[in-house]
Amino acid sequence: MPTIADLETRLGELAQAPNPEVLLGGFRAESLKALAKKTGRNVIAYYSSFMTRHEKGDDITDLDLNAFMNVVHGMDRGKGLDLVLHTPGGGITATEQLVHYLRDIFQGDIRCIVPQAAFSAGTMIACAAREILMGRQSCLGPIDPQYLGVPCHGVVEEFESAAEQIRKDPAYLSVWRPIIEKYRPTFLGECQKAIKLSNELVREWLKTGMFASDPKRVAKATKITATLGSHSYTKTHDRHIPANEAIRLGLKVTMFENDQELQELILTVHHCFILSFQHLKLLKVVLGDNGRQFMTRG
After folding, report:
1. What percentage of residues in the chain have a pLDDT greater than 70?
2. For residue 105, with 0-12 CB atoms within 10 Å meaning exposed, 13-18 middle and 19 or more buried, which class applies?
3. pTM score
4. What percent of the chain clears pLDDT 90, i.e. is strictly above it?
5. What is the dihedral of CA 116, 119, 122, 127, to 10 degrees?
6. Strands 293-297 and 146-147, how do they pair?
7. Among 105, 137, 144, 205, which is least packed by CB within 10 angstroms?
8. Strands 293-297 and 282-288: what pairing?
9. Cα-Cα-Cα-Cα dihedral of 124, 128, 134, 140, to 10°?
10. For 262-292, what is each residue's pLDDT tens digit?
11. Is 116 contained in some domain?
12. Which domain holds residue 77?
């Protein structure tokens, strides 16, 4: 399969290319069309620069809906959608809106392809698909949300620990006061609501999507959601959950290594996007196999 270095060689020295943006743009489009030809389905790639250059605006936001509306235009919606996803996550409500839109447009016939990483709200999107395609190097992440850049579960645990210690020994109040005072009023409540919302959404999406025809859909959706949303299980918000662990948790995961041609096509798409972020000042790209594209620049 082509590595990033192989693509560099095939495309020539990008640093010396007269117009690397046109060169890379053409190759992204070519690789996505080849993947769509293989699957016989619509393909949209949603990529973020977070691994090469983490900046404000590389996460999932409400602006992304406009990007998808632009790219979806003209697609044969009866062919379903393969969503190639590479993202650090982002806003819960923006993710909710995006999932509802895509599910409605493609009548729920969505597969999510994760060449490398779909974390946080990206994992939520993957759980809204009927199937997730992953490789040995692919990973999902916990669905525990962050609020104003702070892990919500961490905030709740901190408040609970403070309350317990102060209840046992009021002298601890002087220790905890400067820590708790850094949070503004209602902050704890907002964190608790964010946790509840993310869990409710994922549980419902699993129940109505991946396990829609399963008589045990409620139990399976509840168990998977509880695990992915458990801070005691994941320990940290940036925990990487590889494909074999995702399968063990009960998610419907297909290893794309089972089809060598498919694997090469998926990884060629991935390498081309990573190469684009390395050489161009891009934050996010939404590209369809129909050639329609929406880019956010850094």
Report:
1. 93
2. middle
3. 0.89
4. 66
5. 90
6. unpaired
7. 137
8. antiparallel
9. 10
10. 999 999 999 999 989 988 889 999 999 999 9
11. yes
12. 4-141+240-297
The β-bridge relationship of strands 42-48 and 81-86 is parallel
CA distance 287 to 122: 17
Measured CA to CA, the distance from residue 44 to residue 33 in angstroms comes to: 10
CA pair distance 211, 20, nearest whole angstrom: 44
Q: How many CB atoms lie within 10 A of CB 5?
A: 10
pLDDT at residue 109 greater than cutoff 70:
yes
Both structure tokens of 139: 């990973």
17 lies in some domain:
yes
Q: Is residue 51 part of a domain?
A: yes
* CATH code assigned at 78: 3.90.226
Question: How many domains does the chain contain in total?
Answer: 1
Instruction: State phi, psi for 115 to the nearest 5 degrees.
Output: -65, -35
Run of H or E residues at 200? helix 187-205
Q: Are 84 and 45 in contact (CB under 8 A)?
A: yes
Q: Is residue 182 part of a domain?
A: no
Burial 152-180, CB ≥16 within 10 A → b, else e: bbebbebbeebeeebeeeeebeeebeeee
Q: How far is CA 32 from the centre of its chain?
A: 19
CA–CA dist 146, 98 (Å, integer): 19
Whether the pLDDT of residue 8 is over 70: the answer is: no
Question: What pLDDT digit, counting tens, does each position of 52-71 carry?
Answer: 877 788 999 999 999 999 99
pLDDT at 11: 62
